[in-house]
């Protein structure tokens, strides 16, 4: 009975949500939307992102983080890749509502990164809350993509979950936990090297939950 009541409450709550709130829920708790949006642009600027740089956002979703990055970068310098067409459709709505269509971001549905060729190299590749939902073979596609698209002095940032706990699920995706040694070995295979630069909490990601302890990786081409 308790489970049924909880399900009914969720349906009622969702029915009362605005269009924007339902969009927020596609990428996490709506109450964390603004914090997670602000975290992304603040982090990237702290680590050197400049308006003239080119950035590709893997798993850009509904542009929760993408909107302030698009606003900050020069016109046409943001590329967003998302596996789910419906979610990216909501991202396009978010872009329009934010009044940033004139910045001409490149938004693409990309179910498999192995099929994506963008025709240029990037100063920054960004994957926020993405690697934590990828099975090993899809992670390999990401690392190959990074190896193929990163400028010689470019950098890839991504957060990972290293908790010593069983894997879980989030929406239709797995919640994958791996030790740092796993990422080190995988990066080496693709001519990449990484540094663990700290927890999300150390950079201002404060929710009071387990996600704050996730580690941020800084990945560059091997020298």
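^ Assign residues to that structure.
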């Amino acid at each position: 009975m308790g489970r049924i009541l909880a399900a009914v409450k969720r349906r009622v709550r969702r029915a009362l949500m605005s269009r924007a709130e339902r969009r927020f829920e596609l990428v996490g708790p709506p109450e964390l939307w603004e914090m997670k949006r602000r975290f992304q642009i603040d982090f990237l600027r702290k680590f050197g992102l400049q308006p003239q740089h080119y950035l590709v956002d893997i798993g850009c979703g509904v542009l929760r983080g993408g909107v302030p990055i698009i606003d900050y970068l020069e016109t046409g310098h943001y590329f967003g890749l998302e596996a789910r067409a419906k979610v990216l459709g909501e991202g396009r709505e978010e872009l329009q509502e934010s009044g940033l269509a004139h910045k001409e971001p490149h938004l693409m549905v990309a179910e498999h990164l192995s099929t994506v060729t963008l025709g240029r190299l990037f100063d920054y590749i960004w994957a926020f809350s993405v690697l934590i939902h990828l099975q090993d073979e899809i992670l390999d596609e990401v690392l190959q993509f990074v190896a193929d698209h990163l400028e010689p002095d470019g950098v890839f940032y991504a957060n990972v979950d290293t908790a010593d706990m069983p894997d879980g699920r989030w929406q239709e995706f797995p919640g994958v936990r791996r030790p740092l040694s796993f990422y080190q070995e995988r990066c080496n295979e693709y001519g990449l090297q990484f540094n663990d630069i700290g927890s999300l909490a150390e950079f201002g990601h404060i929710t009071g939950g387990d996600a704050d302890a996730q580690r941020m990786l800084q990945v560059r081409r091997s020298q």
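Confidence is low (pLDDT under 50) at residues 6-10, 12-16.
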